[in-house]
C-alpha cells in the first residue's frame, strides 16, 4: 500500500486530470448521451489510468490509454442487462447551462437524441471514427474487433444516424463517408 | 452537414460541473491496482497448488498401477523370481576353482513350504562350497563339485608320487544308517553321527539328518607295488570335517 501514498504520482495525475477531464467527459457524453453516466464512465477510465499510472512510461500514450479504457468501459457497461433495461426509459437531454444559439441548440439536441437510437457498438464506432478522429485500425484495436467489423459498423451506424436525424438533418452522403472510403 | 461537424456540435454542449476528484480517483486506482496484484498472486498460488496436487495425484495413480501390475505378475507366476543379487547355482558345477572364500553367495533350490526358519533345509550348493573349502587344504588342483537331486559329489586330486596320483571323492546323499552294516569293518559313534570304515579306502558317516557322507580314495596312473592309499585316519578326519562344515 506504499504506492498509494506517493505524492509525485498524485501531482502528475492531478495535472493530467485537470487538463484532460473535459475532453474525456465530452467523449463519454457522446457515447452515452447522459452527463451523469458520462461522469461514471470518465471515473472508470481515470481510475484504471491511475491504477496503471506507474506502468505507463510513455506519457504521450496517456490519451490513447484513457480513451481505450473509456470506450471499452462504455461497451462493457452498456452490454449488461441491467444497464440496457435502464436505458429503455425515455429521458430528456441535458439542458445547456448557459445561453446558446437556438438553431445550434436544436441541432445539438437532435444529434444527441439521434445518437441514442444508434446501437451501442455502432455508436462507439461513430464516436471513434468521426469525433476522436481514429482510423479503422485504431478503432478496431480499441474495440477489439476486426477492421472489417469496424467498416460494416460504420456504415450501419451512419445509416442509423441518418434515419434517426430525419430529412431535416440529412447529411451529405459524400461528406459523411469515412476517410478510408473517400481515399 | 458533415457527421464530424454534427458530432463536434453535440460534444460541445456546455458540461455541468464535474463531481470527480482527482485525489480520490488516484487513490481508488492505486487500491484497484494493489488488489489486482493480490488477486494475481493468489491466483498464481492457487494454480501452483492445483498443479502440485494434480501432479501428486497422477504420480500416486501411476505408482499404484505399477505396484498393482507387479502384484499381478508375481501372483501369476508359479514360483517367485530369485532375488537379483543372488544367483542360483547350476545343477552341475564343474571345474570350480577351490578358493578359501567363495566369490559370491550361492542359494539353494527353492525349499519346501513346510520348512521352518529354525531348521533350514540342507543346502547342497552351500555344502559344495564348504566341502571344496575343506578339501582345498589337501587337494593339489581344482575340485569338481556337482549337485543333483540333493546329492553332492566332489572329486579332488590329492597328488601322489611319480605317475600315480590319488583321487579323493566325497559324496553327501540321503541314505540308510551305516551301522550296523555287513560290509563295515568297524563302527564308532562320533558327535556328528555314526562312522563306519568300509575297507581300506572308504569311510562312511551317517548323520542324524539322514544323510550319509562317504569319503573314498582311488589311485590313478602307474605305480609299482601296493596301490597308494590315504590312511584311514585321514579319511576319518576328512569325513568328520565335512560333517562339521556341512
SSE blueprint and pairings:
The complex is a heterodimer of chains A (183) and B (246).
Chain A: H1 7-32, H2 35-51, H3 62-78, H4 81-87, H5 102-117, H6 120-131, H7 136-143, H8 147-165, H9 173-176, H10 179-182
Helix pairs in contact in A: 1-2, 1-3, 1-6, 2-3, 3-6, 5-8, 6-8, 7-8
Chain B: H1 3-11, H2 22-76, E1 87-88, E2 92-93, E3 106-107, H3 124-135, E4 144-148, E5 151-159, E6 165-174, E7 186-190, E8 193-197, E9 202-206, E10 211-220, H4 232-245
Parallel strand pairs in B: 1-3
Antiparallel strand pairs in B: 2-4, 4-5, 5-6, 6-10, 7-8, 8-9, 9-10
Task: Tell me what the structure shows.
The complex is a heterodimer of chains A (183) and B (246). In chain A, 71% of the residues lie in helices and 0% in strands. Chain A has 183 residues and is an all-alpha fold. Chain A folds into 2 domains: 1-91, Rna Polymerase Sigma Factor, Chain: A (Orthogonal Bundle), CATH 1.10.1740; 101-183, Arc Repressor Mutant, subunit A (Orthogonal Bundle). In chain A, helix 2 (35-51) packs across helix 3. Chain A is globular and about 55 Å long. Chain A starts with 6 loop residues before the first helix and ends with a helix. Chain B is rod-shaped and about 150 Å long. Chain B is of the alpha+beta class and 246 residues long. Residues 86-116 of chain B have low confidence and may be disordered. In chain B, a hairpin with a 5-residue loop joins strand 5 (151-159) and strand 6 (165-174). In chain B, the strands form 2 sheets. An 8-stranded antiparallel beta sheet of chain B has the order 2-4-5-6-10-9-8-7, with helices on one face. In chain B, strands 1-3 form a two-stranded parallel ribbon. Chain B is built from 4 helices and 10 strands; from the N terminus they run H-H-E-E-E-H-E-E-E-E-E-E-E-H. Chain B has 2 domains: 22-81; 89-106 and 122-245, no CATH class. At the A-B interface, helix 1, helix 2, helix 5, helix 6 and helix 8 of A face helix 1 and helix 2 of B.
Amino acid at each position: 500500500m506504499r504506492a498509494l501514498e506517493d505524492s509525485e504520482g498524485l501531482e502528475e495525475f492531478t495535472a493530467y486530470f485537470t487538463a484532460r477531464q473535459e475532453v474525456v467527459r465530452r467523449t463519454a457524453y457522446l457515447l452515452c448521451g447522459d452527463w451523469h453516466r458520462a461522469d461514471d464512465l470518465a471515473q472508470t477510465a481515470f481510475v484504471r489510468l491511475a491504477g496503471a499510472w506507474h506502468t505507463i512510461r510513455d506519457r504521450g500514450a496517456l490519451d490513447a490509454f484513457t480513451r481505450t479504457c473509456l470506450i471499452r468501459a462504455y461497451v462493457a457497461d452498456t452490454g449488461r442487462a441491467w444497464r440496457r433495461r435502464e436505458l429503455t426509459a425515455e429521458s430528456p437531454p441535458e439542458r445547456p447551462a448557459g445561453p446558446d444559439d437556438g438553431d445550434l441548440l436544436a441541432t445539438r439536441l437532435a444529434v444527441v437524441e439521434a445518437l441514442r437510437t444508434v446501437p451501442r457498438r455502432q455508436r462507439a464506432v461513430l464516436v471513434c471514427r468521426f469525433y476522436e478522429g481514429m482510423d479503422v485500425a485504431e478503432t478496431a484495436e480499441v474495440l477489439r474487433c476486426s477492421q472489417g467489423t469496424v467498416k460494416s459498423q460504420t456504415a450501419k451506424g451512419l445509416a442509423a444516424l441518418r434515419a434517426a436525424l430525419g430529412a431535416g438533418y440529412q447529411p451529405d452522403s459524400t461528406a459523411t463517408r469515412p476517410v478510408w472510403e473517400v481515399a | 452537414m458533415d457527421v464530424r461537424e454534427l458530432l463536434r456540435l453535440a460534444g460541445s454542449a456546455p458540461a455541468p460541473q464535474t463531481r470527480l476528484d482527482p485525489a480520490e480517483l488516484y487513490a481508488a486506482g492505486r487500491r484497484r491496482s494493489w488488489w489486482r496484484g493480490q488477486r494475481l498472486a493468489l491466483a498464481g498460488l492457487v494454480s501452483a497448488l492445483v498443479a502440485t496436487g494434480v501432479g501428486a495425484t497422477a504420480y500416486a495413480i501411476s505408482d499404484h498401477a505399477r505396484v498393482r501390475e507387479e502384484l499381478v505378475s508375481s501372483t501369476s507366476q508359479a514360483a517367485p523370481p530369485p532375488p537379483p543379487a543372488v544367483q542360483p547355482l547350476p545343477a552341475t558345477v564343474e571345474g570350480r576353482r577351490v578358493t578359501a572364500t567363495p566369490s559370491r553367495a550361492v542359494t539353494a533350490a527353492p525349499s519346501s513350504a513346510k520348512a521352518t526358519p529354525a531348521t533350514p533345509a540342507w543346502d547342497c550348493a552351500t555344502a559344495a562350497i564348504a566341502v571344496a573349502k575343506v578339501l582345498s587344504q589337501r587337494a593339489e588342483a581344482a575340485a569338481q563339485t556337482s549337485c543333483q537331486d540333493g546329492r553332492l559329489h566332489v572329486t579332488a586330486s590329492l597328488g601322489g608320487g611319480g605317475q600315480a596320483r590319488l583321487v579323493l571323492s566325497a559324496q553327501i546323499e540321503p541314505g540308510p544308517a551305516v551301522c550296523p552294516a555287513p560290509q563295515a569293518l568297524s563302527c564308532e559313534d562320533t558327535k556328528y553321527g555314526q562312522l563306519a570304515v568300509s575297507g581300506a579306502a572308504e569311510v562312511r558317516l551317517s548323520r542324524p539328518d539322514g544323510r550319509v557322507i562317504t569319503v573314498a580314495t582311488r589311485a590313478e596312473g602307474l605305480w609299482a607295488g601296493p596301490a597308494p592309499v590315504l590312511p584311514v585316519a585321514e579319511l576319518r578326519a576328512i569325513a568328520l570335517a565335512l560333517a562339521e562344515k556341512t
